[in-house]
Amino acid sequence: MYFGPNMINHSIMSTNFIKSLILLVGLSAVFGACTDHRQGELAPNRLRLKRSISTYANFPGTTEFSYDSLGRESGFTYGNFKGSFTYNIRGQVATYINAGPVISVVNGYTNYEGERNEFIYDSPTALRIISNTLVALAGRYLPDREFTRRIYNYTLDGQSKPLGQYNTGPILGGQDVRSSSYAYLGDNIVTEKVSNCGRCYETTATYQFDDKLNPLYGLIGPGITEVQRSSRNNVIKSVLADVGRPDIESITTYEYNTQGLPTKATSSTGEVRFEYERY
User: Fold this and answer.
1) Can you say whether the dihedral through the CA atoms of 137, 172, 12, 226 is positive or negative?
2) Cα 140 to Cα 252: distance, rounded to the nearest angstrom
3) In this structure, how many other beta carbons lie within 10 angstroms of the beta carbon of residue 46?
4) What pTM was computed for the model?
5) What is the distance between the alpha carbons of residues 241 and 44, in angstroms, rounded to a whole number?
6) Which residue of 9, 129, 133, 249 could cross-link 152, Cys pair, CB 3.0 to 4.6 Å?
């Protein structure tokens, strides 16, 4: 849940540009993984991220990750939120639930501060994620509550890399359509563009990376951005270009352990510490 280098995410959150992505924030780097896709690189040390501890104001606190016997992410905890995953027979994520505390009970329906996400794989290059605010009746989730629904449509490269996505969902006065596109250099997203048809503007961020393995690569959790999830290395510099505003530059520095994994990331707005476990 590291925010320092991802300027688009910071800008979005500060302007409520993509409110629902605070919980979802894309979900594409583990779609095609049957096992932990980082095992080959980490096999000599058998290390994986156990927890991240953040001082960033938009997501402060500790996120702790758990894994199943196949090395796949099985869940996470963050404060009062608890994430859980199910997988299909091909080893792809089938559902992702991020459940928080109960916020209201109306006519027997329980509203939670969280989301339930269903993954539909239309082809190797097309994925839909149907996302709903968590609502339950007599303990059963009701994922067909239309007024809470947002649909994310991903274009993939056939190897589970996201090339772009657009999403639609209800807003005051009608439907809103938002889209993103990603350009890669090797295994890292170097350019990210986000546009909002409802507000008719586009934001572009460019990224530079170190040559060390990113511990958030392939993980889903609160605050983990698409760039962090889908890039193999760690962002060290980002530049945000927004129409009508000065460019915003962010620099992130890292401390590493003897295996070359980052143990701390620091920018001008906060820091995150990373702790690992052997498996």
Assistant:
1) positive
2) 44
3) 11
4) 0.79
5) 40
6) 129
